[in-house]
Amino acid sequence: MSKRLTLLCWLALALQAAAQVPVQPEGFMVFNQLFDAKPSAEPPKCRTSLRGPSLDFAFRFNLGYIMVCRVADFADRPGDLQVYTRVTPQGGSPVLLTETYPLPASLAELRTKLTPRKFTQYEFSFSGGFSVGEGDYRVEVLLIDPQKRTSLRQWDVRAVRKRGEGAITPALAAGTVEPMVIVPWEGKLTREGLRLTVLLDVATLNPDEGRLYTWDRALLLESLVSLLRWTPCRSVRLLAFNLEQQKEIFRKESFDRAAFVELALALQQLELGTVSYRALQKEGPANLLAELVRQESNAKEPADAVIFVGPSVRFDGKMPRPELSTMEKGSTHFFYFEYFPWYRPEFPDSIDYLTKDLHGTVFKIHNAGELGQAIQKMLAQLNRGELEKTMPPPGGTPSMSVVPSRPHN
């Protein structure tokens, strides 16, 4: 286990971040001066990298940053880390965003657990992000620590639709910059709709990472919104789980708009680097999947469709045939919306095998266009083809509103 993951396990928490908020015009002069000021003689020892831009499932181009910092550089400096992001569209005016990350008190306590040499080797990380329309941008990320030391990174980026995304109309106009907010589900139900169960696989796009990043949470929530908005439902039951930790994370028998906000907050608090030793048992993931499907098979009112949603996971074990034989009866249809980033090899995982063993359908999804096509194909298989007419065109999403973030203590 890497030192970084070991630290995350020991801390049992991640740096919590509120959503990025725009700086008001009256503050532009002050914050622009911060960006243009002379760098600190001894800047914080942090590495910053930029991710994206990539089109998300709300049809926006997302850009995100990851900061990795040395624990020793902050353990004796309590307070908050302040991050300012200045994004300048080509030929346009800059947009300023700000975000605050409280430093956990446990950083100082860690010093008592390690030798001085080992203590200097440990790091922590945090992330942030924003959304843009098509175009060229100058991105600057400025970190200010509690001692007012500064660290500045700059990039030139281009947001453009990739192959297979040409038919999608981006939700944001070219040259637009906005905070990376979640478009909540309205909670609309219809008597003629489906009884739906969603099993949300809370995993990272990159299985080598020890925690959920901003864009991981955004992918899960945005794809859930698109799925529920485009699939007319009579009722929705949602259960979120994680195979690494082998446990349920969130459950709601009657999922609605308020429950969506609860789910968003639950994901924000989740730290996937914390894994118990029992979760390392090889048969554990299969047992959890078996229990989830068994619950659906034994339900008094079985769902018309059970949908697994999430990135492909590292587990590839198959469920024993005797176990499956008790689950194959009934009229419930199983589907797996399995997400792959462009850099990941496409090998079947445990959920893939399980879905096919239950005579279900696996949709391999790489972009927003494929998500829309998968939903249409699912409705056709359920003999609900007429409901496809209710789906909005790609990019035709309602106006956005922000899912509230958990306030800092």
Biggest sheet architecture = 6 strands, mixed
Parts with pLDDT < 50 across at least 5 consecutive residues: 1-18, 274-280, 385-409
What is the helix/strand order?
Answer: HEHEEEEHHEEEEEHEEHHEHEHEH
Task: Write the CATH fold name of the largest domain.
Answer: Rossmann fold
Number of domains: 2
Radius of gyration: 22 Å
- Please, how many helices? 10
Q: Roughly what percent helix?
A: 10-25%
Give me the secondary-structure category.
alpha/beta
Looking across the biggest beta sheet, what order are the strands in? Answer: 12-11-10-13-14-15
Give a count of the beta strands, DSSP E runs of length 2 or more: 15
Strand content: 25-35%
Shape: globular
What is the name of the CATH class of the largest domain? Answer: Alpha Beta
Could you give the distance between the termini?
31 Å
- What's the architecture of the largest domain in CATH terms? 3-Layer(aba) Sandwich
| Overall pLDDT score | 78
Structure write-up:
The chain is an alpha/beta fold. The chain folds into two domains: 3-179, Immunoglobulin-like; 194-390, Rossmann fold. Helix content is 24%, strand content 28%. The chain contains ten helices and 15 strands. The protein has helices at residues 3-11, 28-36, 106-110, 116-119, 214-230, 257-269, 284-297, 321-325, 350-357, 368-381; strands spanning 21-22, 46-55, 61-70, 80-89, 95-102, 123-132, 135-144, 150-159, 177-179, 194-201, 233-242, 247-252, 305-311, 333-339, 361-365. Strands 12-11-10-13-14-15 form a six-stranded mixed beta sheet, with helices on both faces. A five-stranded antiparallel beta sheet has the order 1-5-4-7-8, covered by helices on one side.
